[in-house]
Structure formats: structure tokens, C-alpha cells
Amino acid sequence: MKHFKTTLLACMLLAAANRTTAQHVYTNANERDKKPVQTTPLFNDSTTNIREKLVLLAMQGPLMKETDHDNRIADLTLKKAKNSWLNLLTVSTNYNDQSFAKKNPNQNYYVYPKYFFGITIPVGIFFSRGAEIKIAREQAAVSRNKQDDAKLQLRSEVLTQYEQYHSMGELIRVQSQVIEDEQAVFLQTEQKFRDGTVSLADFNMASKALNNEIAQRIKLQMQQNVYKVELERYIGMPLEEALKR
């Protein structure tokens, strides 16, 4: 009976110890899982100002200058159409150098003007000129509408590229935290492998997990660089220089 009581007391103490250990492990796990991941909001005053700055630089960049030239060409075409009637006019002159002195009093003489001026006006000018001017004016309006549409499209593309670039930077930062966690696990596994408490397969698994996370960060960095290059094409300058302005 005494032996039974001793065994029962030992089991109760062991159960209490396991319960305390389990609660401690559970608490640590919860604290680790509840650890907030610090992220930068994608929409705040700072990033909004950066977006508008990049859009403004893009509007002054080489892509929009092409539409300015198109508008200039349309304006010159309209001006040319308005003045085209001058090219249809023909001005002629004639100089009569005959002497008006009568050599023979009995002969009739026809007196011609000494100077003669003439202007030829094609009749079609009154019917075609107005239509040509209207066509040129409509072409100028189309050119300006295209420029307005190009501005809206450029703004959308610049904002999209920056959002992708900025979001990719946040993903890279989170991925760096994941790598730190995997690196800690790898170092622990490496030490245990040296101590002989884990197998080679466990060590290789930890090493592979760390390398996979590092490779994922490299892919994210490469994609961010692609977004950066495309964004710089729109603004016409390096992104670092644009952000300093």
C-alpha cells in the first residue's frame, strides 16, 4: 500500500511538471506567433507626395514631349490651311513700251495701257478652302485629345509601376525576416548535428529551407529592379535622383 502511494505521488508530480512545461512552451509559441510584423503602410502622406512627384516628372519626360510636337505640327497644319488660298492666286503684269506718237495721221491707232496687271482666282477656292480649314482644325483637336489620353495613361502606368516597386520592397523586407528565422533554425540544427543529436537528413533539410528563402529574396529583388528600370524610363532619370528633388 505504501509503495502504491509513493508511485501515485510520483505520477502526480510528473504530470504537474509536464503541464507547466507545456504551458511554458505554448506561451512562448503564442508570443512568437503574435509577434507583429512591422510593415510600412502603402498609402500615407509621404508615399502620396512621392507618387505625385513621379507623375509630374513623367509629364515633363521624353514620352510626353512627343505629343507636344504632334500638337505643334497640327497647329502649323491649320495655319497652312488658312493661308493656302494665297498659293492659288496668280498675279501677272505686262509692260507696253509702244510709243503713243502718231506716225501717220490718217491711220487709226489703238491705244493700250502702258502697264497691265492681272489676278487669276480659281473658282474652286471658294468651295474647298473652308473644308480644308475644318479638316485641319479637327486634326488639331484630335491631336490634343490624344495628348490628354496619353497623360491619363502615363499617370496610370507611373502609379502602377511605383506601387509594384514599393510593394516589392515591403515583400523583400518581410522575406529578410523569414531568412533570419530560417538562419536561426539552421544554426541550431547545425550545432545539434555537430553534437550528434540530429541526423544528416535533418541538417540538409534545414540548409535547404534556408537556401530556398534566400533564393526567394533574390527573385523579389530582381523583380523590384525591373519595376525600377521601367519607372525610370517614364520619368527620364534615375529614381534616386527623382526622390531627392
UniProtKB/TrEMBL annotation:
Top-rank lineage group of the source organism: Bacteria
Protein localization: Cell outer membrane
InterPro entries the UniProt entry points to: OMP_efflux, TolC-like
GO CC terms: cell outer membrane; efflux pump complex
Pfam families noted in UniProt: OEP
Annotated GO MF terms: efflux transmembrane transporter activity; porin activity
Position of the signal peptide: 1-22
Main location, first listed in the record: membrane
Keywords: Cell outer membrane, Membrane, Signal, Transmembrane, Transmembrane beta strand, Transport
The family this protein is said to belong to: Belongs to the outer membrane factor (OMF) (TC 1.B.17) family.
PANTHER family per the UniProt record, alphabetical: OUTER MEMBRANE PROTEIN TOLC
Protein name: TolC family protein
